[in-house]
Every structure is written in structure tokens, then in C-alpha cells.
Design a protein that fits this description.
The mean pLDDT is 96. The longest helix has 21 residues. With 385 residues, the protein is of the alpha/beta class. α6 links the parallel β5 and β6. Helix content is 39%, strand content 15%. The chain has 2 domains: 124 residues, Alpha-Beta Complex (Aspartate Aminotransferase, domain 1), CATH 3.90.1150; 254 residues, Aspartate Aminotransferase, domain 2, CATH 3.40.640.
């Protein structure tokens, strides 16, 4: 299989991740923070090491206990957005967002837990103008939530400029880093990011089922869940201090271990080195596909400020049919449809076309695989063009 669906989840993972997860779970598959025996203490050490490496990766702050784990980015986005919601509040977001942002905001507004949501458009290259955030601010605006990088278009948004505007206006900035964490440098301090949310199974090269958030000091997230924490069990309410404030019950320990191994591999290889090679393959793919008659690409005119994501359509074909032919006839795995981001497709005019075909490149793709993908698209396009 030629795997070009890395924006959904990177595959394969580094061998060291599989090996570390297996060894960890065989030796340390016990609950941390609940008991004082050696295996529990050693398990807690791995959890704490992972909190620290993630905090350092994002330059979040000095308190790595504010790095909390969840099932994935969707889980943390729900915790954060619901924890910030206010019936009188106005929220600013963008048309680039994934349903993990769009649906919580929509439902909270429908339920009367948010007053208003503004959705900012993006330009022809897939970028939101930071000044649009400033223009959208109202007296009751409470927070901004935006993606670090579009999962459909692969465009990195200008977080530094957005963060500066938020700080000037005392707004909380929440960033969905699902596609950004591990793909580009993240500096919460320099970019005035208040909450950075991540998932482990994409560019961080970890397993599925693990994600989380770093919440900077001074940001108040109200409780929306209540459960056991393993400490202060006689206290009747869920604990306010971090990490317990946003963690409930037993952690996905093997997921945390896999995340630690995956991030360690990424740091060893170098985020910039991985991204540079992926974008070299992307440029080869872009040029090859754009030269095919009947193929339309979207927001893919240059490689700067991009992730290796290429959305396209072939005239005369439904995106889903192209995906099926790529799979059955060429053994190429990719994503078709709306990619859980309907407002992107609404804005680029592909909503009524049922979305796009999306190729997304990862660390283990090769030039030979890109050549096969280009030829496959050319063959399919030639049928009707």
C-alpha cells in the first residue's frame, strides 16, 4: 500500500514507538499515582516525563502539570470550549476549522450557552487575515479558537499576529494544533497562545487514543466533568489543580508511553528536517498533478507556510469514485469527501461536489511512491479528459 492519508493519522510509525509501547505495557501496565509500589512509581515517572517533553515542545511554561492528557484533540477541544463557554459570550473562529471546533460551538450556541459565534473567511491561498480578528471583536468577545494548520488545505495560519491581537484585547486564544504539533515549531509564549491542543497520532508519531492540551496560568477553564483522580478521594468535588482539573479516571497509559516514544523520535530526527523532506515530495507531487489535464488543485500554488497536503478534483468524477479507483487499481490510500471541515469546502466551492481528494505526505513516503501517485491520477483523468 502507498499510504497518502497522513493528515488523518501518520502511518507507519517508527519501530521504536511500537517497541517502547509493548515493553512499557508488559512491565508497567499499572495505575500511576494510586499506589506506592515500584511499578506504579515507575509508571508515574514515564507519565511525568511525557508531560515535560510536551510542555518543552510547546514552550508552554514552567509548570508541566498544566499539560493534561485526553483521548485526542476532539476530546480536549470539547473540554476547553465548553469550559470557556458563557451564555453572554461572543466567540471568534474561522471557516478553516474542523468539526471538532465547529460542532461544539454550534451546539453551545443552540443550547444558549454561547451568545454568538463569528466565522472568519480565508483568502484565495487559504490564509485568514489577522486584521479580520481585530475587526470582529465585540465588547462581549471572550475567546478566539482557530486552527494552527488546515487539515484540508495544509495552510499554517499566522498565529503570532493573531496572538498579538488577542493579547492586546485581553482575549483568550485557543489553538487547535491537531495538524501543527510535530510539524512546525510551537512557541506558546512568543505567540501569546493561551491553550494549545494536540493529538498524538498525527505528526507527533504516537498512537491513536491519546491527545491533550497545555493551559497557561491565568486561564480559567470551568469543570464540565467529574470523576476519580486517585488522590484526595475524600474531597467531594472534582479537584481544581492541574493536571487533575482536566483529567478523569485512569489515563491511557500505553498511549502516553507511545506518545513519549513518538515525540522523542520526532525530536531526534528534527522537526525541520522531517518537514523539509516532506515538502520536497509535496512540491514534486504538486507540479506533477497540476500538469495533468482535467485536474484542479486548491490553495496549492507555493510551498511556503504549508503542510504536505494536496487537495484536488478530477473533472467528470466524484471525489469518492477517484478515491476508490486509487485504492482498488493502484493500492493508494487517501482521503476523500469533506474531511470533517465543511466550511472550508463551502468557501472553496467544493461543498456541492462532495469535497475533494486529499493526498497527505508523511515521513516514510518515497519519491517512487509520489511518481506512482502522479501517474495514477493521470491515468484516471485521461478516461474523461
Amino acid at each position: 500500500m502507498i499510504y497518502l492519508d497522513n493528515s488523518a493519522t501518520t502511518f507507519p510509525k517508527p519501530d521504536c514507538m511500537y517497541e517502547f509501547m509493548s515493553g512499557f505495557y508488559k512491565q508497567h501496565g499499572v495505575n500511576p499515582g494510586r499506589s506506592g509500589f515500584d511499578a506504579a512509581i515507575e509508571t508515574e515517572e514515564v507519565v511525568q516525563k511525557t508531560r515535560k517533553i510536551m510542555t518543552d515542545l510547546f514552550n508552554g511554561g514552567s509548570d508541566f502539570n498544566r499539560l493534561t492528557f485526553s483521548y485526542n484533540a476532539s476530546d480536549s477541544l470539547n473540554l476547553i470550549i465548553q469550559g470557556l463557554a458563557d451564555p453572554e459570550a461572543h466567540v471568534i473562529t474561522t471557516m478553516l476549522e474542523h468539526n471538532s471546533v465547529l460542532r461544539p460551538l454550534y451546539c453551545l450556541k443552540e443550547e444558549g450557552k454561547l451568545k454568538e459565534v463569528t466565522y472568519l473567511p480565508f483568502d484565495k491561498e487559504g490564509y485568514v487575515d489577522p486584521e479580520d480578528f481585530r475587526k470582529a471583536i465585540q465588547p462581549n468577545t471572550k475567546f478566539v479558537v482557530c486552527t494552527h494548520c488546515s487539515n484540508v488545505l495544509g495552510t499554517f495560519q499566522p498565529l503570532h499576529e493573531i496572538g498579538k491581537i488577542c493579547k492586546e484585547n485581553r482575549l483568550i486564544l485557543v489553538v487547535d494544533g491537531s495538524q501543527g504539533a510535530g510539524a512546525a515549531k510551537v512557541d506558546m509564549h512568543a505567540d501569546n497562545i493561551d491553550v494549545y491542543i494536540f493529538t498524538g497520532h498525527k505528526c507527533l508519531m504516537g498512537p491513536t487514543g491519546i491527545g491533550g492540551a497545555y493551559v497557561r496560568e491565568g486561564v480559567h477553564i470551568k469543570h464540565t466533568r467529574y470523576a476519580g483522580t486517585g488522590v484526595r478521594s475524600a474531597y467531594p468535588k472534582h479537584l481544581d489543580e492541574y493536571p487533575y482539573r482536566l483529567e478523569y479516571g485512569t489515563l491511557n497509559l500505553v498511549g502516553v508511553a507511545g506518545l513519549y516514544a513518538g515525540v522523542s523520535w520526532v525530536l531526534e530526527q528534527g522537526i525541520e528536517n522531517i518537514h523539509k523532506r516532506e515538502m520536497e515530495l509535496w512540491e514534486k507531487l504538486r507540479i506533477g498533478i497540476q500538469n495533468i489535464k482535467g485536474v484542479t488543485t486548491y490553495c496549492a500554488n507555493f510551498p511556503e507556510r504549508k503542510n504536505p497536503v494536496l487537495p484536488f478534483n478530477i473533472t467528470g468524477f466524484e471525489a469518492a469514485d477517484v478515491g476508490m479507483m486509487l485504492d482498488v487499481d493502484y493500492n493508494i490510500a487517501c482521503r476523500t469527501g469533506l474531511q470533517c471541515a465543511p466550511k472550508v469546502h463551502e468557501h472553496i466551492g467544493t461543498l456541492d461536489m462532495h469535497g475533494t481528494v486529499r493526498f497527505s505526505i508523511g515521513p516514510f513516503n518515497t519519491e517512487a511512491e509520489i511518481d506512482v501517485a502522479i501517474q495514477a491520477v493521470a491515468d484516471i483523468a485521461a478516461i474523461k479528459n
